[in-house]
Amino acid sequence: MPRVLITNESRVPLPAGPYPPPGDTVPLSFFDTFWIILSPVQRLFLYPDAAIPFSSIVDSLRSSLSRTLSLFHPFGGKLIYLPGSGDAVIDCSAATADGVAFVEAESDLDIRRLAGDEVHDCESFLQLVPDLQAAELPAPVLVVQVTAFAGGGVAVGLAAHHVLTDGKGLWLFLEAWAATCKGDSAPPVPVPSHDRAVIRHAGGPEIARQFLRQLAPALPKVALLGSSIQDRLRLTRITFALDGATIQSLKQRAVHQSIELSHEPIPTPSTFTVITAHAWLCFSQAKAVAADEVILLGFMADCRARIDPPLDEGYTGNCIRTCFAKATGSELAGTGGLANACAAIGRAIKAGVEEPLRDCEGWVDCVRGLPPGRIMHSSSSPRFKVYEMDFGWGRPERVELVSMNHDGELVLAAGKEQGTVQASMGLAAHQMEVFAKGFVGGLEG
């Protein structure tokens, strides 16, 4: 018997238009098309204590999703390719878009074990999130799955195409959906906006087409990165919890090291910077990086407030760019390693956000030129309050990004308690033991 059995598949249709700008068709910016070959983003929420009937949960999720789509209509559209112009767009018209696929399932898995184990049961997690077929256009941009467990509890999983939205936009949608499902009648704040035309850049539409030609030259077919089951299961993933006192101690250590190195303290690093820096040290150790070898760190910077003119906080399209920090093995391995890592991240942030659109036409070439095997990726943010996702039956006990497909991918999010942070890491199995020992041991000073 399958551990997860699909019992019903239906669709939540888009409410009838007319829609606010840009209307039925949402042209994509180069911030969007940059992600055309990334496998869909898969998020999982586990609710072991959900005590209301599964049929009621399904009805609430479906009806509230329908109401939420009236404000987030691109989330119910389809990604299509227009060969005449070379563009990809999200089509929300009645002739093309048929809403969001809604999958119902049941499982005999132990949800409390899945929610409690630090080491991810990746095979089970993958069964609890839906499959979004994105290897050929037209393709959906959002699919939802809700699963009932034989011993009680429920899982909500979703898959979203990255050309639709970035992390901030996805959480705006999820927060609005959860609030609607819970019975909050107030409109979401900030008000969502989807019009990519607000991104002003000379030649922007042509850069978007250029990225499509570079990344997916066989459109409407797309060769997705990390899409096979083998790719997804080859890594070990572990989740670590950091409390406020530990994070503060890390920050103080970084400042103290900077004084010893230069006799001048660096500014107190942000929570994102210091946790990512600490993980970078441990990643370098796990990869046995030589003293004179350069190791990279890639992470995303939100550009909404930094481009000219700045975007609304409710903008749901992609508006992130990749920043790269670099250091040598000796810089990260020495007694001042944490301070050096924080300083390198600070320089990368400054370079990335001072002129966020500088050389944007070369972003694809830049990523293609990265050395394989010596780069750690950090995604998401401790600002995302993932454990506040209450649909009406309580907060989740576990939230994870299932689509952690990079060797050396760190995913950060706000933890369960105020001031805490959840850090999940994916790494080759034979290197995870070294990473985990260094990560936990380093937190203890």
Q: Classify the secondary structure makeup into a structural class.
A: alpha+beta
The shape is: globular
Please report the distance between the alpha carbons of the first and last residues. 48 Å
Count up the domains. 2
The radius of gyration over CA amounts to 22 Å
CATH architecture of the largest domain: 2-Layer Sandwich
Summarize the amount of helix as a percent range.
25-40%
* Secondary-structure element series: EEHEHEEEHHEEEHHHEHHEEHHHEEEEH
**What's the CATH H-level homologous superfamily of the largest domain?**
Chloramphenicol acetyltransferase-like domain
Count of DSSP strands: 16
List the defining traits of the structure above.
Chloramphenicol Acetyltransferase; 6-stranded mixed sheet; 13 helices; alpha+beta; 32% helix; 16 strands; globular; 445 residues
What does this structure look like?
It is a single chain. The protein has 445 residues and is α+β, with helices and mostly antiparallel strands. 32% of the residues lie in helices and 24% in strands. The strands form three sheets. It has a six-stranded mixed beta sheet with strand order 1-6-8-9-3-14. α2 (54-69) packs across α5, α8 (244-262) packs across α9 and α8 (244-262) crosses α11 (337-354).
